[in-house]
Amino acid sequence: AQSVTQPDIHITVSEGASLELRCNYSYGATPYLFWYVQSPGQGLQLLLKYFSGDTLVQGIKGFEAEFKRSQSSFNLRKPSVHWSDAAEYFCAVYSGGGADGLTFGKGTHLIIQP
Amino acid sequence: DTAVSQTPKYLVTQMGNDKSIKCEQNLGHDTMYWYKQDSKKFLKIMFSYNNKELIINETVPNRFSPKSPDKAHLNLHINSLELGDSAVYFCASSRIRGNYGYTFGSGTRLTVV
Q: What is the mean pLDDT of residues B14-38?
């Protein structure tokens, strides 16, 4: 079965600094990969997704992610964070096979220091 | 217009009660889902419906039952509520089975006392 690991439970970054959130997946074929963001008390918003093609994916709010098959990773990056980026970030995988639905990682809580 | 709307946003109820959470999407999506987010923020799929057919049901107690009167609605009924049912429940929809990404509702925080 597919799985997603987000190794960092919490990350603290200074405002204006760069950000990288890690995500590793376990799946035999090429997965469909997603990053979602959840602001406090809110639902989940899709930041970006990867299905195929260019391994560097651009998303909303200035985020990007790079798919690296050799490392089974799909890390999320942003060159300069803003205080409004403080939220919970979830990586997810969809296998496209018999088991439907997205499998989510446990999330990374991003804290922005002034 | 809200794409995926859930009601109520908050629900406080006593153990043993029966309650329902409603979900509606106006995106014309074919598949709808219910997810449970526990106190540690972990998201786990509970159900999905495609064209009124249940196509996935994870290890969810049979006290939980989804009801889909039409393609735009997927309601969640919970019988004999237990303390452990306290969580945030998210409804979501997708165009085709989730590989285009989901659109989530804003969640229903259920507290069982």
A: 94
B27 touches chain A (CB under 8 A): no
Contact B99 A32 (CB under 8 A): yes
Residue B99, pLDDT score? 62
Contact B99 A94 (CB under 8 A): yes
pLDDT band at B102 (very low <50, low <70, confident <90, very high): confident
Contact B30/B51 with Cβ under 8 angstroms?
yes
pLDDT at B53: 77
With a pLDDT cut of 70, the percent of chain B lying above it is: 92
C-alpha dist (Å) from residue B49 to A1, B17, B36, B90, B112: 21, 25, 16, 14, 26
Query: Which residues of chain A fall short of a pLDDT of 50?
Result: 98-99
Q: Is B44 left (phi over 0), alpha (psi -120 to 50) or beta?
A: beta
Residue of A38, A90, A106, A108 to mutate, testing the B interface (most B Cβ within 10 Å of its Cβ): A38
Find which of A74, A104, A106, A110 to mutate to test the B interface (most B CBs within 10 Å of its CB).
Answer: A104
Mean pLDDT, range B3-18, rounded to an integer: 96
Q: Considering Cα of A90, then A94, then A99, then A102, what sign does the dihedral take?
A: positive
